[in-house]
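tool=predict chain=A
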Amino acid sequence: MASWESGGAGLEMKQMTALRILVVEDDTVIGVLLADVLAGMGHEVCAIDSTQLDAVSAAGRCRPDLIVLDVCLGDGSGISAVEQILRTGFVPHVFITGTTPTVRARRPDAVVLQKPFREPDLAVAIQLALAAGIAS
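tool=predict ok
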């Protein structure tokens, strides 16, 4: 599967391995649409959850290669969910939000995708998150 990667002179094509991805989004319609986009990119969505507690549980159960999650959840925060998940080991993750400064204040090195976004933007964010995981 091909994806776009941000390079020094622009975007370039790079092969991306299919990943098991956990989607955490409190808006059911957006969660399903995001899962469809990820499946269309060749990934397997192992779970779609909508709460901080369910996200932490699903991460332990599914052992995803990547987590894509909304920052604002109805019962908590995607940032808090990731902080709990990371206590058991690193999992690359991409935050999706309409308020990037909120994430940057708590996690300055986070991979953040600003809503609204397009599929190529998501592919770049995934590559950045995976690269961050290799570097850590």
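The chain has one domain: 17-135. Helices lie at 28-40, 52-62, 78-86, 100-106, 119-135.
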